[in-house]
Amino acid sequence: MESSEQRTSIVRSDSGLIAGVCGGLAAHLGFPVSYVRFGFVALTALGGVGVLLYAWLWVFTPSAEESKADQLRSWGTSRRTLAEEMGRVQQGIPSPKEMTAKLASWRETLMGTGLLLIAVLALAQWLGLNIRWDLIWPAMGIVAGVLLAWLQIDGQRLSGDSKSRAMVLGRLILGLILAIGGLLAILSGTVSTSDLIGGMWAALAIIAGAVVVLLPWGARLWRDYLAERSSRQAAAQRADFAAHLHDSVLQTLAVIQKRSDDPAAVRTLARVQERELRAWLYETEDLDEEDVVVELQSEADNIEKLMLRDVDVIAVGHAKGFDGQQALVAASREAMMNAAKHAEGKISVYLECNKELVEIFIRDRGSGFDVEAIEEDRHGVRESIIGRMERAGGKAVIRSSETGTEVALSMPRSSEQEEQNNE
Amino acid sequence: MSSELSNEQNIRVVLVDDHGIFRSGLRADLSEDLVIVGEAGSVESAIEVIERERPNVVLLDVHLPGGRGGGGAEVLAGCAHLLGNTKFLALSVSDSAQDVVTVIRAGARGYVTKSISGTEISDAVRRVAGGDAVFSPRLAGFVLDAFGSSSVAEVMGIDEELDLLSDRELQVMRLIARGYSYKEVAKELFISVKTVESHVSNVLRKLQLSNRHELTRWAVDRKIL
C-alpha cells in the first residue's frame, strides 16, 4: 500500500469537529476518520489519555491552512510540470458550504453526547454511585478553557479588524480563567485554602523571575521571527519576479528565435516586450485608465502589435473626462494606423495637455501625399480624422511633405465640463 | 560646427557600459570617424579609463555597477574636473525620468535611449563633441513636463531667468518632442540649425542649474530628489 505513494506528514484537516486532529491522523495512517475518533474516545475513557494525546497533536501539527501557506511560499521558484499546475488549480476548488453544514450537525451531535453523558452521571449518582463531581467539574473547566483558547489560535489568521481581535482576546482571557480556575479547584481538594493563596504568591514570584530572565531571549526570538518573515516576503517577491520573467520575457525570446529570419518582426517583438517589461518594472504610479495619456498609449501599443511598427509616445501632462476625448483618441488611432500603413520608419506621437487644449501630433517619415488631392472619396482621412474631430468641436490639420506627414489634432477642454464629467 | 570638427580630427570615444554584448554592438555600429580608445564596465574602471585617455566624448550608461551605487551620475561626479574637455552622452535602456534627470543634472550633455540606431548615435556623439546638447524626444518631453508652459510661469510670478524657458526654447522643445530633427526644427521655425543648437544648449543649462521649484516638485513627485 505504501509502495506507490509516500505517506503524507500529519496535517490537521480543514474539516475537523474540534481541531481536525482525528481527520489529519486518519489521512496520515490511512484509516477511516470514524475509527480514529472512536480510538480517541476509548483512550479518553481510559483515564483521559486520549484528551492529552489529542492536545499534544493539536499543538505540534500544523493546520491545513498553515501547511498550504508554506507550500505556496515555496511554490514560486520551483519548477513545475503541467500536471502539478493542474493539481494546484483543482485543489483550489473545495465545496465549503456543504462541508460546514455537515460539520455543524456533527458538532451538535457531539454536544448532545456530552450533555447526555452528564445526565447519565447524574442518574448514576441518584442511583447511589459515588461520582467525584469535585474532579469532573474542574476537569471540564480546564478542557473548555483550552478549547476556547486554542480554537482562537487556529481561527486568528482569518480575522483582521480590531473588533474581532478584541473578541479573540476576550475569549483567550475567559479560556485562561477557566483553565486556571479548574486547576486551582482540583488542587483545592488536596491543599488547604491558605496554602493555596501562599502558593499563588510563590507562583507569581516564579513567573516574574522567569519573565525577567527570559525576556531578552524572547525578544530575540521575536526579532528573528520578524527577520525570517521579511526574508520570506523577499523570497516571495523574487518568485513573483521569476514567474513574470518566465511568462513574458522567455516566451518572447522563444518567439524571436523562431522568427529570426524576419528582422522587422524581431524588432517589433523585442520592442513590445521591452515596453511591457518597462511598464512592469518602472511604472509605480497608478495611472488612471480613463486618462487620455493611458488611452493613447494603449492605442499605440495595439498598433505596434498589429502592424509590427514602432510607435513612440511622448506625453506631457494629464487630462481626462473632457468632451471629445473619445473622438480625439479615435482620430489619433486612425492617424497612427495611416502612418503605419503608408509610411516607413518610426512613428512619433506627442501628446500635450494644457489648461485649454489637448493636442496630439502624429508624425511619420514617409514620402508624404498631397493633402489637397484627397477628395471626398477618400473616406479614411476626411471622415475618420478631420470630420470626427470637427464634429466633436476640435480641429485636425494635416501637413505632408516628401520628408513625412504630420497630423495635428487639437481638442479644447474646459475645466467645468471635466469636473462634471468626472463626478 | 560639429562637422568641421569631425573633419579635422577623429573624435576619441570611451564606451562605458557593463554589458559586453552592448559594447561590442555599439563598437560595430559607430561610424568610422569615431575612434574608440577605451571601454569600461564599472564606476571605478570608468573613472580610471577616462582619467587616462581624456577622450572627447564618453558614452555613459546610466546604470553601472560598482562605486557607491550611484551609476553613471557617480562617474560624472568623479570626472567633474574634466567636464570642460570631455563631454558625456548618457545612454540608457530606461526611459524613467529619474535616470535621465539625474545624469543630466550631474553634467551629461545629452541623453539617448539604447534603441537608437548607429547613424543616430554617431551623429549624437559628433554633436556632443562639438559642444552641443543632444535631446531625445523623451528628454524634451520631460523638460516640457517639468518647466511647463511659459504662461503658467508668468501667472505664478516666476521671473528668474534660469527658471523660465523662453517661448522659442519651448517651441524648440515641443518640436523635438514631436520627433523633429534639429534640421527639421530649424526649417519649421525659419531659423538656422545653429540657432536651434544654441536654444537646446540653453535649455540643457537651465535644466542643469535651475532651482525652479516646479522642477524640484516635479522631481519629488517622481521620487528623484
Automatic annotation (TrEMBL), chain B:
Ranges that cross the membrane: none
Domain Response regulatory, residue spans: 12-129
Ranges in a coiled coil: none
Keyword Transcription: yes
4-aspartylphosphate modification, residue list: D61
All copies of domain HTH luxR-type, residue ranges: 158-223
Any one Pfam family match given in the protein's UniProt record, by short name: Response_reg
Superkingdom of the source species: Bacteria
Keywords associated with the record: DNA-binding, Phosphoprotein, Transcription, Transcription regulation
Protein name, per record: DNA-binding response regulator
Native source species: Glutamicibacter ardleyensis
Organism taxonomic ancestry: Bacteria, Bacillati, Actinomycetota, Actinomycetes, Micrococcales
